[in-house]
Every structure is written in C-alpha cells, then in structure tokens.
Amino acid sequence: MSLTFYTHPMSRGRIARWMLEETGLPYEDVLLEYGSTIKSPEYLAINPMGKVPALRHGDAVITESVAIGLYLADLVPEKRLAPAPGSQERGPYYRWLLFLAGPLESWLTAKQAGTLASPTAAGYGAEGDVVRVLEQAVTGKTFLAGDHFTAADLYMTAYLDFYMQFGMLDRLPAFETYCAHHRERPAAQAARARDDRLIAARKQ
User: Fold this and answer.
1) Which domain range does residue 37 map to?
2) Among residues 73, 103, 148, 204, which one has the fewest Cβ atoms lying within 10 Å of its Cβ?
3) Please, which pLDDT band fits residue 198 given cuts at 50, 70 and 90?
C-alpha cells in the first residue's frame, strides 16, 4: 500500500518528513497551501481539522504529528525506531512522545497566549514544571528509550530544536548536548533539505 504525505514545508510536517525519511519507505508528497487548499473540501475529507501533516496508507488516515511517528515506526520494525511491544523500553518511548504532544505543546500555547491555567487544572502543571522535567529527561542521555535511536529521540530533538530556534525554550546546555547527538542524522539532513528546497521553490 502506498504512502501519501500531506504537508506544507513550513509546518510540523517537517518533523513527520524526518520520520518518513528514517523509515526509508517511498512516499508521495501532496503540498497544501494555508488559506486555500488546506481548507478545501477535498482535504477536509482527509483531515477535518484542515491542518497538516496527515498521512494516508491505503485506507488508513493518520493525523497529528506524533501519531504519524508512532504509526510509521511500527511499519518498519527492522529499523528499530520503536522498542519492541511489551519491552521495558516501550514505557519511556510512549511517555516522552506523548509528553511532547500533550504537556509541552499545551503549556507553550497557553504561555504564548498569556492564559496559563491553574496548576491543578492543567496537564502541564505549574510554571517551570515542563522545562524541569524535559531537562531531567535528557541530561546525560543520548537515547530516551533503550540503547539506540528511536522515534522518541527524533521528536524530542525536533521539538527542542524548533522551540529553542524561536526563543520559546531557553537554550539549556542539556538540550543542546542532547540534540547534537541526533539533529545531523542522514535522514534529518535529507528531510530538511527536501523541505528547504520546497520553500525556495515557492519564493521563485
């Protein structure tokens, strides 16, 4: 079954593309534009949120960046992008992927909007909790789940790099050291180059 990847080169699709490149699987790009095709009836039939990225695999449609990563990792078990089901490493693998998609994203969104919720009402807790937990997670670590690179490391690196680049997270030494282990992987470079070429082509 073919893989079809719906994306925009300036979106979280960049992270999902890195994951696609790690799998080595062939895929087809469908590029969407903000304010037009991303809200078209054709695309809303695929993702009613009208957001990217999205992935179609046969009749299956997967939305949400981390969900795409989880799905792709399980398609290529030989790549070891996900720990084996039932293994001890599977726990931290799920933990950190969902921590990024949940508490980190919601905290940064609330902070940017200036509407932090009560610590007892929000999954991100009190001010500073998320950063403290992330710093503890990567300090002295090369890998988050076991002794090799997994999708958890891909998403942690991508999220930390993105938010540090835009000043939403401080460039803590632990973050920089951890990300340096992974950001220049061949698949990361290939994905970045492909999206950067798409951005350049749009400006011509």
Assistant:
1) 3-80+187-203
2) 204
3) very high
108 and 165 in a common domain:
yes
- C-alpha distance from residue 107 to each of 27, 61, 102 (Å): 33, 28, 8
Judgement on whether residues 69 and 113 belong to the same structural domain of the protein: no
Do 18 and 94 reside in the same domain of the chain?
Answer: no
From first CA to last CA, the distance across the chain in angstroms is 34
Same domain for 130 and 73: no
Q: Structure tokens of 169?
A: 């997270």
Position 203 confidence tier, pLDDT thresholds 50, 70, 90: confident
Q: Tokens 């009208």 sit at which residue? A: 50
* Residue 187, token pair as written in the block: 């698949």
User: Do residues 142 and 123 touch, judged by C-beta distance below 8 A?
Assistant: no
CB atoms within 10 A of CB 69: 30
Give the tens place of pLDDT for each residue, 34-75: 999 999 999 999 999 999 999 999 999 999 999 999 999 999
